[in-house]
Write the structure tokens for this entry.
Amino acid sequence: MNFTITPAAEKFIRFMLRTDGGPGSGFRLAVSPGGCSGLAADISVKPEPAPGEAVVERNGIKLFLPAESRILLDGVTIDFADTPAQTGLVFHDPKATTCSSHHDAKAVQ
């Protein structure tokens, strides 16, 4: 699986795991087509992956990724933005050409 997590996004994910997760918890990232970047996300902290979700570790962070997310994240850079206009994960997808603004992902539990 070829995707990148920026230091800002990694810091956000670690914060979410510390705040909402227990030992062994992971960050569920369910990505679907949509939004200006070409991707929309539903994020949450879960104690374990759901059936069919892959566990991908990056820098000690456990990501729980459904099958569709694994396909859609190929080549994507996951970043975090905290600006007056948006706060949340931002997906930089070189394959997307729809528009230049970005989609906010909000934590859902």
User: Anything to note?
Assistant: The CA atoms of residues 42 and 96 lie 19 Å apart. The two ends are 26 Å apart (CA to CA). The first strand starts at residue 4 and ends at 5.
